[in-house]
Each structure stands twice: as structure tokens, then as C-alpha cells.
Amino acid sequence: MRYVVSLINKYDAGKFPRDLKEMGIDRAIQLASNENPYPPPEEVVEAIRREVLWINRYPHPEYKDLKERIAEYCEVDYGMISLGSGVMDILKVIADVLLEPFDKVVVPMPSYSYYTFVSMLRDAGVEEVIFEGYKVSVENLSGKLIFLCSPNNPTGNTVNEEVVRTACENFQYVVLDEAYAEFAGKSFVKLLDDYENLIILRTFSKYFGLAGMRIGYALSNEEIAEAIEKIRSPFAISPLSARAAEVALENLEYYEKIRRKIISLRERMRKELEKYYFVYPSEANFLLFKHNRSNLVDEFLERGIILRDVTGLRGLEGYHVRVTVGREKEVEAFVEVLRELNEN
Ligand SMILES: *Cc1c(COP(=O)(O)O)cnc(C)c1O
Fold first, then answer.
1. Rounded to the nearest whole angstrom, what is the distance from the C-alpha of residue 206 to the centroid of ligand 1?
2. Is 111 helix (H, G, I), strand (E, B) or coil?
């Protein structure tokens, strides 16, 4: 086995409802994985049902229909799109496409831990640089590749345009993860016109409520897009996923309604949390807060609410928890436990 495999920490996906069942806890409210808490529209479910009748067949490996719809949705050329089985898969393919051993990779922290994971696997030299509250400044940084995330997981804030531009000037390549961009209503796709070395990542897992379908895409110049398409596994996207994503893009009004609901619930959660803790500014569908109870996550878990403990993530000092905005009832349950723990 390669030595680096022993150095890499397993990706921590957090707790899942079935883990609680095994612990004998009968309620399970999942607020730990930043999913859309609402199911996709009926049109999407119906499309999956129809597509499943063809599941004995391989999908066409180019996924033309899906790319055409993404091109329209993102207002980019067809040739700028590459696909993967989720952004996580695309990150790995990008590392395969771009990185040689010892290449310098910069990862501003606190951010998504998978950037370091895929870079280490390529034997790159990873430098995690800490910016409090992910207020990133790249003026004094350079290297082969930098990973930016906007809105950032787990802090929730976006980066500003100047940061992305400077990163494109200072680095050979820039990967900008926009997994939550739709919640913020802010994207840097237009910068692809100005920079040949920018790669923007998007997913159907969060805003479009298709986390289980495993489908993401990258937007970049055509040469990089072709390389990603060449290196990814040929049938990486299930035809069910491709079809679901296509139909999701035909139902943007449904998602816009849900977006408004989620944002209003996020602000309700923020108001409650701020009574007790420091809450980071967020433009996404989750909130990061700093607290002072060593076992807060377990206390919530015992009461059937799964939160993401991000304490110990590089760049976060003290106890930190990330909580996903749930449905109205789930948010009420969260607020109830929050009050119970803090007022007794
Ligand atoms: C959830 C998340 C992903 C994973 O997306 P998939 O498309 O489900 O693989 C990627 N990046 C960030 C920042 C995320 O939070």
C-alpha cells in the first residue's frame, strides 16, 4: 500500500439517522449534512421512475442532454462543462488531471477537508493557511493550485470577486467550489471569460435536493473540461441521476420557492442561536456557531437531533458546531432543545 494512504484521515461524514437507531434513540432529525430538507419536485421523481425502466442499459457517456441544460442554466458554452459523480468525485479527477508529486497546493482554512484529502493522495505539498472566519486574502500566496469555497463550508460566508481575481493571477490553477452558490444568489461564473485557469464546481446535492443521486459538474476552459471528461470514469453518472438533474433544471421556480423558505428559516435559527452563542455570517443553508459546552453535540444527539461537530477543524479555535437549516418542524425542534439546554 502507498505510504500516503496511511497518512490520510478518513473523510468524516458525521452521524446518520440509522446510527441513532442503533444507539436506541427513536427520533432522528438530520441537520448535519447541509442537504436540502425538502424532496425534489414530483416531476423529478416521475422522471426517475420512467428512466428506471431502461436501467439494464449503459447511459451514453457524453450526457449530452444534461450538459445542454447546464449550459443554458449557467450561461456557458457546452464545451466548458464536465461532469462527475458528485463534486467529491470531480475534486479527485481534478487532482489527477492537474497535480504532480510535490506540487504546492494552498488550502485556505477553515474549509472543506476533502481538498487536502485529494491533494495528498496525489503526493502534492499541501499548505493549509488559516484565515479567521475564512476572510481570505491571497495577495501573498502563490503555487500550482488553490482551493477556494464560496459560500464556504463550514463558515457560510462568500469570498469577494477581488480574492478570486487575485488568486487567478497568483496561482497556476484555481478551483472555486460553489456547492452552495444558489443559496447565496452569487456566483463567479462570469469570471470564466477572463481567466483560463479557473475551474468552478457546482453540485445537484444541496440546492437541488439530489444528494443521493451523486451528480456534480465543473465549469472551466474547454481544454480543462475535456481533460476532466477524459479522466473521469466513462459512466460515472447514473442515467437516473442525469435524468433527475435535467428535470430539476426545468423546475427552477419550485427551487426558488424553497430557497426563500430556507433563508427565512435560517434567519429564525440565527436569531435563536445568537441569544446564547456567536454565530458566523452565512449566505448558505447552514450556520456555524461557537459555543462553550464540551458535549453540546451529544446533548442534541441524545434528543434526536444530529448536528455537525466541527471542533478541531484547522482554523477554528474552541467548540464549533455547524447546523443545517431544516424544515419548519425540524427548526422548531432544534430551537426547543437549544432553549432547554441553555435555560436549565
Ligand atoms: C457537500 C459539499 C460537496 C459535496 O458535493 P457532492 O456533489 O455531493 O459530492 C462539495 N463541496 C462542498 C463545499 C460541500 O459542502
1. 8
2. coil
Distance CA(230)–CA(138), nearest Å, equals 31
Is-contact 296 341, C-beta < 8 A?
A: yes
The pLDDT of residue 13? 84
Q: Which residues line ligand 1 (CB under 6 A)?
A: 34, 86-88, 112, 149, 153, 177, 179, 203, 205, 211, 216
The model carries a pTM of: 0.97
- Grid cell for residue 23: 444507539
Residues near 164 by Cβ (< 8 Å), separated by ≥ 6? 148, 150, 174, 176, 188, 191, 198
DSSP, collapsed to helix, strand or coil, labels residue 164 as helix
Ligand 1 pocket test, candidate residues 70, 109, 112, 288, most atoms within 8 A of CB: 112
pLDDT computed for residue 247 by the predictor = 98
Cα angle at 157 between 156 and 160, to 5 degrees? 150
What integer pLDDT is reported at residue 11 of this predicted model? 87
- Give the residue ranges of the chain where pLDDT is below 50: none
Substitution site in 203, 214, 282, 310 for ligand 1 pocket (most atoms within 8 Å of beta carbon): 203
Write down the residue that cell numbers 469570471 correspond to: 191
